[in-house]
Design goal:
Low-confidence stretches: none
CATH superfamily: Histone deacetylase domain
Mean pLDDT: 95
Strand order of the largest sheet: 2-1-3-8-7-4-5-6
Radius of gyration: 17 Å
Oligomer: single chain
Largest sheet: 8 strands, parallel
Shape: globular
Structural class: alpha/beta
CATH architecture: 3-Layer(aba) Sandwich
Number of helices: 10
Number of domains: 1
Number of strands: 8
Order of helices and strands: EHEHHHHEHEHEEHEHEH
């Protein structure tokens, strides 16, 4: 059975007019139930995890400053959210969703987090709406518990996974792959193990061809025993913060390529949703829902 992390706290009450669409998480949860893609049995509620797992990926002083709301104002501004206790709790709960999803993926082949994909969080700082890096914490968790040795992170958000790249820059046991818009944020990129930077306006045909050539080859070369997939839908043409031009169907095919490869190679995978900023919230929810539909079709 597909197990999915969801908690009502995912929808944090940001100030009116904030451009981050927090409401998409709640809407996605209800959409998946309404259409019958999922039932309540598919969902589990994450909790506050043991801090030691967060410290595996993040600097203790940075974590302490966040939790005590004593972060340097200059560093806090780069995050993009007005910091408060509920937001910090939300980010910690999201990380636990990915930790628990790791356990479910080992049992069922795949598990998902309706939120997460917070790939702009570095070892000692956050930025770009990201405080803690849930997939980096998940990778360290798996290795700490001897549940995985070699891990592959596939990041297909339109923005480079700069925080993830920094966290694992000196770690050969985690291979980071980011395919993103060349001229998108972040404007100063980190170096992943493999970066594919795409020109503005790249559409379905070119994008999917690159992916078809890259994913199986990466898996064969790296021989991972666990995969994290960041399935941001800010690659679609209508996205306000993206500069690529995938169609809705092209984005769904992207998910199929990645998830089918995980299934074919029998490698457990955890998916975090990442970005999506189209003007119409229905477009964001539909694009994310396609990822869950595709997972159900392939694995169950």
């Amino acid at each position: 059975m597909l197990k999915i992390a969801y908690h009502p706290i995912y929808r944090h009450p940001l100030p009116l007019g904030h451009r981050f669409p927090m409401g998409k998480y709640e809407l996605l949860y209800h959409q998946l139930l309404h259409e019958g893609t999922c039932t309540e049995e598919n969902f589990f509620e994450p909790e506050i995890p043991n801090n030691k797992y967060i410290f595996l990926a993040h600097d203790p002083e940075y974590v302490s400053d966040l939790m005590n709301l004593t972060l340097d104002p200059k560093i806090a501004r780069r995050i993009g959210f007005p910091l408060d206790e509920l937001l910090i709790e939300r980010e910690i709960v999201i990380a636990d969703g990915t930790l628990k999803a790791c356990e479910y993926a080992l049992k069922n082949g795949i598990s998902m987090n309706i939120a997460g994909g917070t790939h702009h969080a570095f070892t000692n700082k956050g930025e770009g709406f990201c405080l803690f890096n849930d997939q980096a914490i998940g990778a360290r968790y798996l290795q700490h518990k001897n549940l995985a040795d070699k891990i592959l992170i596939i990041d297909l958000d339109v923005h480079q996974g700069n925080g993830t790249a920094e966290i694992f820059k000196d770690d050969d046991s985690v291979f980071t792959f980011s395919m993103h818009g060349k001229s998108n944020y972040p404007f100063i990129k980190e170096q992943s193990n493999l970066d594919i930077a795409l020109d503005n306006g790249v559409g379905d045909e070119e994008y999917l061809q690159i992916l078809k050539e890259t994913i199986p080859k990466l898996i064969l070369e790296q021989e991972p025993d666990f995969i994290f997939y960041l399935s941001g839908v800010d690659v679609i043409e209508s996205d306000k913060l993206g500069k690529l031009s995938l169609s809705m169907e092209g984005c769904k095919e992207r998910d199929r390529i990645v998830l089918q490869s995980c299934k074919d190679f029998s490698i457990p995978v955890v998916c975090s949703m990442g970005g999506g900023y189209s003007k119409d919230i229905k477009v964001i929810v539909e694009a994310h829902a396609n990822t869950f539909r595709t997972a159900q079709d392939i694995f169950f």
